[in-house]
Amino acid sequence: MKNKWLDHTVMYGFKLTLCTSEKMYWRQHRKLSKRWPAPHWVSEGHAAMHKYDQKHGSPLIVVCIDDKTRRAVEVAGLLAHEAVHVKQQLMRYVGEAEPSDEFEAYVVQNITQNLLDEYARQKKRR
Question: Is this structure's pTM higher than 0.70?
């Protein structure tokens, strides 16, 4: 299964993808970075966000989730948690120190929906 880069409706050029297996993460890491050793694909919390800076352009964000033995509600919670970290990176990138509450909520909602859609797409094909 290949992961795909997700919707750019939040911020054009800010790229986001999801890896639901360690193999997917390592494939993506090799494409995006020469850094070795790479960070662990997920943290103790079973999910992680990795940021890759491009020389010219916006950051590339890779969200990873280890969903083995996870219920659907836990997966949704983990992806929502990682969506907040993605939003934080986005706000740093655009230099927005104090976004409005409503803007933050819409951004997290958009990122979460994109991650959940990609999660469902990847799981459906397995």
Answer: yes
